[in-house]
Amino acid sequence: MIITVTLNTAIDKTLEVPNFRIGRRHRSVDQTTMPGGKGVNVARAIKRLGRPVIATGFAGGATGTRIVEALTAESVLTDFIRIGEESRTNTAVLDPTTGIQTEINERGPAVTDREMELFRDKLLYLAQGADICVFAGSLPRQVDTDIYGSMIKELRKLGVTTIVDTDGEPLRHAVRAEPDVVSPNVIEAEELVGHEFNDDEDRMLAVAEIVEQGPREAIMTVPDGVFAKVTTDNGPQLYRVRVEQQEARAAVGSGDAFLAGYVAARYTGGTPEECLRFGVACGAESTQHFGAGVIDPHSVERLLGDVEAIPVSLPAEVR
Ligand SMILES: O=P(O)(O)OC[C@@]1(O)O[C@H](CO)[C@@H](O)[C@@H]1O
């Protein structure tokens, strides 16, 4: 079983607004709502890939009920802790004339110590039957920024593989707890290592630098693929994995789809290279659909042949 943890679940509302301009009044021509939050999107995509997955975390109020009911309607297994405050609604404005999407994410509810205690209990219970646990997304209010870090340590004792996709302080703490994999995007990775990347060499060295901070492996997502430092049977290996970028219908959540593909392949025993290639195919395919974590597994298989995995030699200083 694969667990996805989403502490800050959301209803993602996307409004289609042609010629969107800051400071003007608009009427949307179309709108969609879907349960979201990064771990929820990862669970949706893993389910579509046919691997066993359960989504957990916090869900509060009428929005929380909607999130759980909508996931159930998608046949995604859920086991959320119900909390007193309302889960958030994240709003995205998509301008079809330019393809540009603007997002406003709410901070989310405050979580009490008691609710957090209940969640820890639940996670440890679910972890007994799990192989992999994915922690993804921001934290709701009043939650210790070391929460992912402390859960990673507890799950390691149970032999569960831990994978993290978050940012800022929670990411900083999580890497120190030595998870199996961290998967930041470029902006999150630049913040983590403390400098900007100017070229591919910088990006390649950055994943090695992140591994130095604690995780066993690091995968940085970029629009056309990933830069990664993974552990193969022959030792550590750097990879650049890329695919020709297609014109995106909606790129939001492609990092979540990458992670879902990577985890699904890892769950069924893929080699590191196979997992990275499958993840990149899933991330790219997801850009053809509205809705984060929505993928078509048949198109993913077709795209896989176009994904290139290039092993990169380790410079002496990062060996
Ligand atoms: O505020 P967070 O938790 O960092 O990100 C939440 C979010 O923007 O990320 C997903 C796309 O990756 C959306 O489903 C969701 O609304």
Automatic annotation (TrEMBL):
Record carries keyword Transferase: yes
Pfam families from the UniProt entry: PfkB
Coiled-coil zones: none
Domain of life: Bacteria
Keywords: ATP-binding, Kinase, Nucleotide-binding, Transferase
Occurrences of domain Carbohydrate kinase PfkB (ranges): 20-294
Annotated PANTHER family: 1-PHOSPHOFRUCTOKINASE-RELATED, ATP-DEPENDENT 6-PHOSPHOFRUCTOKINASE ISOZYME 2
Family: Belongs to the carbohydrate kinase PfkB family.
The protein's name in its UniProt record: 1-phosphofructokinase family hexose kinase
Species annotation: Conexibacter stalactiti
